Structures are given as C-alpha cells and as structure tokens.
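Database export, one record per block. Field names are fixed; values are copied verbatim from the stored entry.
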Amino acid sequence: MKNIAIIGAGMTGLSIAYNLEGQKITLFDKSWRPGGRVSTRIHDNYFFDHGAHYLSVNHNVLQLNELINKLNIVKEIEIDFATNYLKNKKTKKKIIIGKNGMNSIPKSIFENISLNNYFNTKIIKIKKNNKGAYTLYSDRDEFKNFDYVLICIPYLQSKELSSNLIDFNKIMHEPSYDPIHTIMLSYKGKNNINLSGGLHLHKDISFFMNQNIKFKNLIDECWVLNMSSEYTKTNIDIDDKSLEKYAQTIFENTFKIKNKIRFIKSHRWLYAQTNISYNSLSKKYWINSKDNKIFLTGDWVIGKSLSDAWSAGEKLSHYIKILTV
C-alpha cells in the first residue's frame, strides 16, 4: 500500500481518490469543502450554482456517469435555452444537474470515499527527504512520508508549488485559463422571462441561468450571470459595487424587469475555465517529476467541463496503478 497525497479536492482530485481507493490516501484542500469550482452558494434562503452550471448529457465520461447514477445524486431536465440570445436563436436543451445543487455532486462522491482529509489546509511547500519520500507543509503543520504527491489545482498554482521539484524550463507547452466574473441576483416575485438560460445575452454577459429550475423551494426568482472572459480580463480589478450595478442594469433592461431586487453578489473566478488545454498542445495528460513521484493534473489538461476534470483524474490514476504494482 502506497502513501499518496492529493492536493486539491475538486473533481480531478476526487476522481483520483475514487480510482485509487485501497491505497492510503490523504486529501488536502485550502477550502472548507470539496468540489473546487463546482460550487453552490447559499445566502439566507437563496441558492446559486455559481461555478459549474450543469453537466452535459453528452459528456461521454462513462465512469462518472455510472457513479453519479449509482449514487442517485443527479437528475436530467429539459429547459428553454438560447444558444445565442443576441441572434434570437433558441432551442430545447437537456442538461444534468445535482439534485441538491451542483456542489452536491462532489460532496456526495467525497462522502463515499474512504480517505484521510484536511480541509482549510493550504499546502505551501513540498520537500523531498533523504529517503526519497515527500513532506508537505502548510502554514501550521507538516505531513510526512508520502510516496506520491498528486497536485490537482489550477496550473499556475501547481507550477508555483512544485517549481523546486520539476524543471519547468523543459515544459514546452503551457495551458491557459479564462477568468470570469459571476453575478448572483434575486428578485421579489416572478419576472416574465420565457427562458431558463442561454448564451450571449449581451456583448459583456456570456451566460445566464435561472436557479429556480434547480432549487424548487426558492420563493423569489434567482439568476446567475457570467460576464464574458474578455470583459473580465479588461475589468479584472473592478470593485464589486460597480460590477454588480453594471450587470444588473444590463439584465433588467434586456428583460424589462420591474420587480424589486432582493439580493445581488459577485464572485471572481480567476481560473474559471480552461482556454487552451495542455493535452491539445502536448498530447500528454499530466506533468511529472523526473522520479515519477510528483504529478500535476486537473481540468486544464483536457478542457473546461466538470467531466473533463474527472477524466483527467481517471487517466492519471490508471498510470499510478501501473507504477504501484
């Protein structure tokens, strides 16, 4: 049995933990809960999936599909969706959502894996000892004697954490991310909006989705908006109030909303989605140290979706199984 550290409790880290169950697994994350960007925000009686919005019905990751159906944690719904609102292109769209919000998917998967875990623990340094094992350091503690360290966080953070162990001058291709500002809004009563979600609401709003289709107990009408990556890059340091007012004005003018706003909150996802994947550049599925003990992977390897993140973890875990035979 190998002693394996996984840094990052997003979908990639959970995929590896699930596939390597039977080894001695310790999971670390700087957040208080699993899921990474698969995030459901709760504020009083309001609920918002403000990270990953849904899972595609055509995602083609068989293992993930089998697992979420076995755990009975998702449901398929059909919604009215604008493929391009500005061009008035609309369709019926089938999507997969978590039964209790999107974060209920990684949360339930985590609860069904046997492992040690340290949340609210940011690993800031990794060091190899004279016996070839690895020690992980947080700002408070140290964790010793790991045979493998699998880093499943955004690429730039992974690179910074492992720069003393991997020669990145030899990495010829690097993935890139798009940042996205997300806005959460709630209105008193029901607005007359005949769409559940869509793309290209405005040149500066790339995505919008109603939350009442996911959370049936919501009394007020709740929405999530994604600003475009181009707008976000240009306005990465905009203050919250200005951003929220701008997005609210566009949304209300577009749909002629007269109801009173109850709640508005913004969130900046600095590493929101993969723009150019590592695999598309290198044809590889991970980055590893010379001794094959430190591995970097994540959604940045394959693509931007929840299923891409799971697939990246599944691929690396199969290789780790070969190494540990």
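Remark 1: DSSP finds nine helices and 19 strands in the chain.
Remark 2: The longest helix spans residues 306-323.
End of record.
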